[in-house]
Amino acid sequence: MRKIEAIIRSGKLEAVKDALGRYGIHGMTVSQVMGCGLQRGRTEVYRGHEYSINLLPKVKIEVVLPDGQVEEVVRVITETARTGEIGDGKIFIYPVENAIRIRTGETGDAAV
């Protein structure tokens, strides 16, 4: 099993969620996060003073799935979230040792 964490633009969440749903992925965790990378934030003026805002709002999507689906799900996320500009986000892939469904006690792929 693998865990995919995708940090994407907030405006791309619905499109990515719909694309994953069409692929058959319905279980996911979505979090509102703040971060910075190559975008390096932006500068705003408030009451005549200039402020640097270097943490920008992003969305983190977390999905755990069997090893055989990883490449296709990464492709779906990448194609759907890409705008071609700095700030499109990142995808991280982690190994998952085990998963347990609390309600039934199922473990491994059956729990996902």
From TrEMBL:
Gene Ontology MF terms in the entry: ATP binding; enzyme regulator activity
Pfam family of the protein (one): P-II
Domain of life of the source: Bacteria
UniProtKB keywords: Phosphoprotein
Keyword Iron among UniProt keywords: no
Family as reported in the entry's similarity comment: Belongs to the P(II) protein family.
Protein name: Nitrogen regulatory protein P-II family
Originating organism: Thermodesulfitimonas autotrophica
Phylogenetic lineage: Bacteria, Bacillati, Bacillota, Clostridia, Thermoanaerobacterales
